[in-house]
Write a structure and sequence with these properties.
Elements lengths: L10 E5 L7 H11 L3 E6 L5 H8 L5 E5 L5 H15 L2 E6 L18 H22 L3 E11 L11 H21 L5 E7 L5 H4 L4 H11 L8 H12 L10 E4 L12
Helix pairs in contact: 1-8, 3-4, 4-5
The structure holds nicotinamide-adenine-dinucleotide (NAD).
The site of nicotinamide-adenine-dinucleotide has 25 residues, from helix 1, strand 5 and helix 6.
Amino acid sequence: MSVSVDLSNKTALVMGVANGRSLGWAIAQQLLAAGCRVGFSYQGERLRPELDKLLAGKDGVWSQQADATSEADLVALFARVKEEFGHLDYLVHSIAYAPRQAMEGRFLDTTPEDWNTALQVSAYTLVSASRHAEPLLRDGGSIVSLTYHASQQVVPKYNVMGVAKAALEAATRYLAADFGEREIRVNTVSAGPMRTIAARSIPGFGGLYDKGARNASFGRNATPEEVGKLALFLLSDLGSGVTGQTMYVDAGLSIMTVKED
Ligand code: NAD
């Protein structure tokens, strides 16, 4: 089912598309289908061919390399946004990373270096990207990021990434307060397990995905398309009045303890 939203006079920046399975791409597809003009940022030049393939033949799109932890890259990225669009309506942050070793052992053994990397890439970049976006964002604009339930409950091996997601969710509320006067909304979408590159780097993700499908109230996992539709709701005027929230799209996984056989 497609949702009918007209975003033909709107502009968006989507940060963090690695390939066609990326949740950032699922969101971008909804924006593009609604007529939005969309710019993309990707982490390194090795990701460019994949993005170029996805964007081939699409109107009103452009892309630029930007490591979200680099101030210089963010300056250049938002200068490009200004040049291409003049302003910005929507910012999508779909970025996370923790060093693999931090997700293999015990949370107790997290090193300061791995803690800093995970928190900087996965939470602080929402703050820095929002700050760079601020002068370009039109009143009534909207910012959406992606989070995961390991912020609220222990998910084996998620470790410092669970802490980073808790920081992201708290940052969402503080950013929503700062942007409130201009009615620029800031929300985060808590997605159930999805098969993406980032997920594959989590040890034991396959088991988590299968158990998720069994335990969710729907008896299946949510889909990237469903993530895209919730993000579209939150970005567009359909979500007016909603800010500072963590909204779940997980086919009812987080509400369950154990399902009856
Ligand atoms: P993905 O690997 O497709 O996307 C992650 C993106 O982060 C990649 O494009 C990667 O290049 C980018 N990235 C990492 N470090 C970066 C940096 N320093 N600068 C710029 N970009 C950087 O995987 P995904 O699952 O689509 O992840 C997108 C978001 O969704 C993440 O925040 C992730 O935690 C969240 N999420 C994923 C799941 C899941 O099960 N896949 C569930 C809930 C939330």
